[in-house]
Amino acid sequence: MAGAATQKTMALNLNLVPGGVFPGAWRAAGEDGHHFSSLPHYIECAKIAEAGKLDAIFVADMPTWRFKGEFRPFRGLDPTLALAAVAQHTTHLGLIATGSTSYNSVFNLSRRMSTLDHISGGRAGWNIVATAGDDAAMNFGMEQSLDHDARYKRAHEFVEASLQLWDSWADDAWVADKASGVFVDDKRIRHVDYAGQHIKVKGPLNLPRCPQGHPVLVQAGSSEDGIALASRFADIVYSVQHTLDSCLEFRRKVRERAVAWGRDPNTLRVLPGLINIVAGTEAEALRQERDLQDLHREHYAITALALLIGVPVEALDLNKELPWDLVPADGHGGSQQGHFATLVATAKREKLTVRQILARQGGGMTHVTAVGAPEQVADLMEEWFRAGACDGFNIMPAALPTGAKAFVEAVVPILQQRGLFRTDYPGTTLRDTLGLKRPPVGFSDADFGRPILRVSAR
After folding, report:
1. Which residues does residue 189 pair with via DSSP β-bridges, in sequence order?
2. What pLDDT score was predicted for residue 132?
3. I need a labelling partner for 69 at 20 to 30 A (CA). Which of 49, 63, 182, 431 fits?
4. What value, to the nearest 5°, has the Cα angle with vertex 214 and ends 395 and 64?
5. d(CA 119, CA 211)
6. More confident call, 135 vs 359
7. Segment holding 357, helix H or strand E
8. Does the global pTM surpass 0.90?
């Protein structure tokens, strides 16, 4: 079922990792270390992506002060607010915002995502995250995080309820008939009355069905539960597989699971992360990589590694392998589980010392990495795409915005010349760009017509 790529052209997202994926990139000459939290930086990156006809930009989120931010930019802005502002400066680019199912009200988050779709003219996407970690839980009035099973059960219910809220208005419910004076046909609106184990919401949503019907759904699922969530709901699946064979297997598994949910697997887009440094020659790109690695503070790197693999920082010896007796068998079960599994497997297979891991982490051990001339980067992307290992890539430049500009100006034209990437946007919505149909309302006409609960004003 993996086979060759089912699309004619790639899907390409730009991942707005603050400052770029290399932790020390913000220190490089020509980069502004303060831009990561400024709207002009987001707008600049978005305009670069749209000039290259990329599908979307993606903004991740972490509702906690986990990495402390001493040595690199961190994710601070609320993605939905930042992207709502970016929407006013772009016309076709998709806008994918992360929203946690663990620490949001389903009504409020569904409304925010629908709002982003409305004000952007149908370009919103929701990256669904089941947030782990007690530190995040404490920011929302809880003593500890939900356990792994509960978080994913809640995530399934959350998305189910969101889909029903987005469908609580029929497409023709918003009449706005000046002659009759009827603004909304309330017979074409229905209560949701969703009652699960973790999620309860009555509805309906308080705004019409959004331009795309539903915002595009995105999920980064590498654990078994993550794959179940992604294969059931996601239109785009981000992956951390960094070898062609492992990504072939991951894409095959996700597509088979989608079929088991009754879905057409050709409606899924699997996009591995692609860390890249593009320069005029391979030698120049490798020099840039070394320079960026030299800017990577060792203290930050070792602290981040300890946090990712779940061991005390003092247990890591730079000149030895990981303390395998302390490394958890399956990580923390959260959104970083895929990164954990990939890093640990690589370190064990290659018998890497902690120092070697830190050097590799500067450019990523848990994503595809392409460092070289434009043709070399394009060659790697073409190989993966034609082999059916992916449907495109989540582009992760080493530095932003310079790395995004280099990719768009040097690599995208080569992909276009080879017929692997579009030369223009096919429509106005993100679903148009991805070649996905607008979903019909998920209820029959018989489900509508129940009166809305009316509350008298006093």
Report:
1. 169
2. 86
3. 49
4. 55
5. 9
6. 135
7. helix 354-361
8. no
- How far, CA to CA in Å, does 204 sit from each of 18, 103, 183, 458? 37, 21, 17, 22
Q: Are residues 196 and 253 in the same domain?
A: yes
Reported confidence tier of residue 271, pLDDT bands at 50, 70, 90: very high
Q: Does 174 reside within a domain? A: yes
In this predicted structure, what is the pLDDT of residue 457? 34
Q: Where are the alpha helices (DSSP H) in 7-51?
A: 39-51
The closest alpha carbon to 96, from 69, 111, 117, 76, belongs to 117
- Do 341 and 415 lie in one domain? The reply is no
Most distant CA pair in the chain, distance: 79
Residues forming a β-bridge with 12? 393
Residues 192, 324, single domain; the answer is no
Amino acid residing at 299: H
CATH of residue 145: 3.20.20.30
Which of 100, 118, 117 minimizes the C-alpha distance to 109? 100
Label residue 264 exposed, middle or buried (CB < 10 Å: 0-12, 13-18, 19+). Answer: exposed
Query: How far is it, in rounded angstroms, from Cα 330 to Cα 277?
Result: 31
Give 359-383 as a DSSP string.
HHHTT-SSSEEEEE-HHHHHHHHHH
Over residues 371-383, mean pLDDT: 98
Report the alpha-carbon distance of residue 85 to residue 100 in Å, rounded.
20
Contacts of 27 (CB under 8 A, 6+ apart): 33, 295
Taking Cα atoms as reference points, which of 347, 390, 343 lies closest to residue 364?
A: 343
With respect to residue 26, please indicate whether it lies within any of the assigned structural domains: yes
d(CA 251, CA 268): 9
Planar angle of CA 316, 321, 324, nearest 5 degrees: 80
Range with the poorest average pLDDT among 104-108, 135-139, 200-204: 135-139
Look up the domain containing 191 and give its range. 11-282+367-445
In contact, 152 and 100? CB cutoff 8 Å: no
Comparing CA positions, the residue from 102, 172, 87 lying closest to residue 132 is 102
